[in-house]
Design brief:
about 20% helix; two-stranded antiparallel ribbon; globular; homotetramer; 8 strands; alpha+beta
């Protein structure tokens, strides 16, 4: 069972990044979180597509949210590596991320992230993200 | 010899992203480009460090600049994959990228990118970025 | 519908690597192939686990098989990049690979590969593999 | 200064993999190790080139050797991730690996590995490899 739900995770995001337009936590289950990001014209790139960094940023953030949903508010977890393959031109519409926890160890967590445009089934990008989890203060 | 120099590459960046604070092309040689990004407080993250997406974005953009420096303004080249290892906490100062073209084929280019804080020698992150190069219109 | 089935793919493997112990193609569907590799004592590593290179090799080969199952015998397709996260110690038993074609373009194919020990549900490793597809001779 | 030299590292390799043809440790410095692997006909692949798995295996092993050269015989260190970009067709001659330690932390080490054919300057592949270092028994 998740330790944190939609509201708690959204609050962590909003407190951590008060001035930014943060992603929206849409769904939290035992296995996955679904996160969306509202795309506007200013995220565009020459060629009329969504910028790669927007996708990398959402992959990174949604992996962090997926880990916190299972182990609680480890806000100081840090990304140690991120690999992403860009597959198709996304539409200039909401970008969605669906995560899958591949490993949740004491020191490292590995998260698989699928990125797609809202309403579409084909993936626009796929990432594997590793986070280092700080030792818990109680130990 | 590079086909485009500092001024031409900076102009492409500024035209492509008119409203954003774009990186600065500092140096262009046969083998490398050096690009910097001015970091301000708003790029911070919980824990007082620079956000990972800022580093990924600079790795992606500097790889694109490195390719264009050698083959001209292929503004429609697209990233096909990016791998990054985060190594150390960067300082909240200018982030620097130094590129190395590992391969410049007709269809794919692979660029190695070192990221470091201005004035430091240790790397804060290291990326390998692949771009797909569109067929040239003349062919 | 797959263009090549279990028998045809197995024949390509056996002809391509006549002296090696090749993987076994176990299943071919529209979406996936399942490939197994018989692990013996000599694949072990200090610590009594399966060597990483055996897993990387099976990830690479099964991605190639997945692509050929859909587009026919492109034996000259070459791997352009491979990313793998190692998740758990595999057992010294058959290693299994299940593929998923993330993208099948004219020039590049990207394949997601799950690796697990036969009979287990948890993944031991997860890879994303990119192949470059040679232009077809007819074009 | 390296903790282990050419002879000690070679001995670890030979003891760990008694029946395999192990790589040769050619040089150990403060910053790098150079490792070679004797390529024979049986490593070939359809198309007359060196098999990708041979390159991945050497990248993995040489990263392990580079870490041990600095911190001693941590034979139980395990690879947590490996990313490799294949750049050019290697020749069917000795494959060389040159490493660079990007990070040597208490828990994780990240190693950059350049692969090239003996006598050539252009890289055939480039990898970034992460190892997890087990807690030292004394602590």
């Amino acid at each position: 069972m998740p330790k944190l739900g939609v509201g708690e995770l959204q609050a962590i995001l909003s407190q951590g990044f008060p001035d930014a337009d943060v992603p929206h936590v849409e769904e939290v289950t035992d296995d996955a979180v679904i996160v969306s990001y509202s795309v506007t014209d200013r995220h565009g790139r020459p060629g009329g597509t969504l910028a790669g960094p927007v996708m990398m940023s959402l992959a990174d953030t949604s992996a962090w949210i997926a880990i916190m949903s299972q182990i609680g508010p480890v806000v100081l977890a840090v990304t140690t590596s991120l690999h992403i393959d860009f597959l198709r031109k996304p539409q200039l519409t909401d970008l969605m991320a669906k995560t899958r926890l591949l490993k949740l160890g004491r020191r490292l967590a590995v998260v698989d992230v699928e990125l797609y445009s809202r309403g579409e089934t084909e993936l626009v990008a796929k990432a594997q993200v590793t986070y280092s989890i700080p030792p818990s203060p109680a130990t």
